[in-house]
Amino acid sequence: MGRRGREAAARWLFIAALLAALEAIVRLGWVNRIFLTAPSLVAAAAWEKILSGELPALFVTTLFSVGAAFALAAAVGLPVGYALWRFPSFGRAYDELLSALFASPWILLYPIFLVIFGRGLGAIIAMGFISGMIPIALNAHQGLRDVNPIYLKVGTGMRLSERQIIRHILLPAAAPMIVSGLKLGVTYILISVIAVEFLVEIGGIGTLASKGYFWFNTEDLYLGVAGAILLSMLFIHLLGRAESRLFSS
Amino acid sequence: MKPLLIQTATVLVLAAVWEAVAKSGLLFAGILPGLAEIFRAAWALVSSGTVFPHLLVTVHEAAVGFLFAAIFGIALGVTLGTHPFLRKVFEPPLLYFAATPKIILYPIFLMLLGARLESKMAMAAVSGFFPIVVNTTIAAAGVNRIFLKVARSVGASRIQTFARVYLPSMLLPVIGGARLGIGVSLVAAILGELKVSNAGLGFIIMQSFNHFRIPEMYAGILLVFLFAAAVNVTMTLLLARCRRFAHERAG
Amino acid sequence: MTTRKVLPAILVFLATAVAVTLVTAAPARGQLQTLRIAIPQKGLFDTTMPTWIADKKGFLKDAGIKAEIFWSSGGAETVRVVTAGSADIGLATGTESVITAFLKGAAVRVISSEMTGSPDLFWLVRGDSPYKTLRDLDGKSIGFSRPGSSTHMVLQLAAEQFKIKPNLVPVGAPPDSYTALMTKQIEAGWASPPTFLDKVEKGEVRIVFRGAELEGVRGVSTRVNFTSADFYDKNQNLVKAYLSAIKKTIDWMYDNPKETVAFFAEVNQVAPSLAEAGFKFFPKEALALSPVSRVDFSVDLALKLKMIDKAPTAAELKRLIVAE
User: What is the DSSP letter of C144?
Assistant: First the structure.
């Protein structure tokens, strides 16, 4: 086993030990079963829900919200990022504003979104849109700004049209930053989607956790928590792989 | 056109659009009150003193949570940063976990710690922990090897090495992590209050919402934004002060 | 460390320990026993007023009780607040919710009925809509709070009683319901007095159905007060004292309607005329603390909503319901 293998093994061992400890604590009856449940029972509940189709449906709802929000965020964020670069004084002005908005606790505005978009996926997608649009736009802007001006001069020197310059010089040069922004965008969208699903119980995997808590279905609660965490981790892992594959040349 | 001009103009235009939509009745009256109503409600909250006990509760929750986050975050960060094997094993899962929505852990805290302040402190702690531990790990690992070798060669004790080599080198990134940590701790505490609580800024917002006192709800949100901005500005100034301090020291 | 540094440190520590002990011990040695009460939906007449007035008029103090109120936002949350140890008594929670929690392992005990029947709910339609009674809403969308709530249950029974097949939509709390109604997402929204009675007065909305019209739920204890099993075992006298204070308060409330209306208006920050209109929704019998009747109804409801998958045994019910 190489060094990488040893590290991975250590990690899995650690996780296995934690799960085993949890299982033991619950089986030995040290904790009331409305507070903590055994991993095996959570897995059993998960299997039951997979078979009934309930769990896939929840994941699909969450993924749909994330996907829709991402499509909107990219469709708006990329052109906005370009516009910020194209018009530098606006770029400087809105860079600061957008960063400030992003760093603010805007997610607390969720009651307002509910009121405007109704108590449904619309509100969730709207909030996801904002979480994703800002990092995508800011990163695209930064990526374009980082392009060495010499490349652009080369383009004009070769008498390329603006569209050709964008397609063949700008975009490829800015691509790493843009893709990084897209990756960040998806991550933040997923976080805000799951958070609002949990807070408002509209649907999706976040709602499973909330309902499980309030209705004393401890297995559902932990299933929801685990599901949300695993979904996040899966997303980041896949995005990381896609990113490195895109830029491995 | 100067950026500041554009920013001011944008804010004014947005305010005008808000006012127009509020007065037009596009969204039914009551959902989007006019700005004057919101400011009046905000002033009422402040001048009547209603907001201060709740502000204190939220600050208390965020502060205690942040303290725990800082202690554990720095401790773990230094440990991982100085032990390469541990870092390779635990840093990836930490980074994965950092990108998950911590609010999902809230019911667990509610069950274990109850519905009062403690569960919000736990939310603040868990949320603030990650920026701090990530930054501290990188900072501790990034301490210049040469300085460490020099310290060892002059026979410096553990404590001296820590104070003279690690601390100055790590100060900026750790404070940077703390600045992020404080922000997320505060938001996490308020999010918890929005779901289950009996006190705090989030509680005020939710109560106003439940009793359909919408201008008051917006006022509460406005006050939260102002407070968060104030905390952010303070931390940014602190960071700038530390940056100057570090540069003076380095010379 | 030298003695010079250690001694002062020890003295400071001892002084702090003594001070903390005195401060925290004092209330325990006081005359009144603190009772932490979780109350859902602050401002709702039946959930809030008895305890609120009992506190303000000194009936609780006479019983040796100091009330510490934790306002929760709804039934299931109230149970969680109590089982988490953040409150000793939980009020006004759907009977089916308490039964469900109990069967899932929550150590709770039902100490009294809180609401019999469902006079506290009503449904609104927009002022300009054509609906006169619930029958007109066949096939239309009607809002309720959340699955498993009393609003849900009442709507389902009402649909049976009026022989209609409406589309039931979960909309959340009254503010959300009102918004959904006014933005035409639903044709009828729910509310509880005194919310939106002012809008009714202005004609913006119209009451199309009252929970009091529902026959299927008459005589059923729809909401109960409960406590944690542990607390009950250790504090039976305190619980009994609280309940008798509340009973006394309810008697007083209906003997002194003007003052009651004033309190009601104050808690909700509404005009006294609205408070009075809201008060009229609640007949005294609905607030009776005993008996806890027709538990079978709540069990059936819990089964129907799949909150539990099998009914509790008689022995389990006996263990759960310690009310007189």
Answer: E
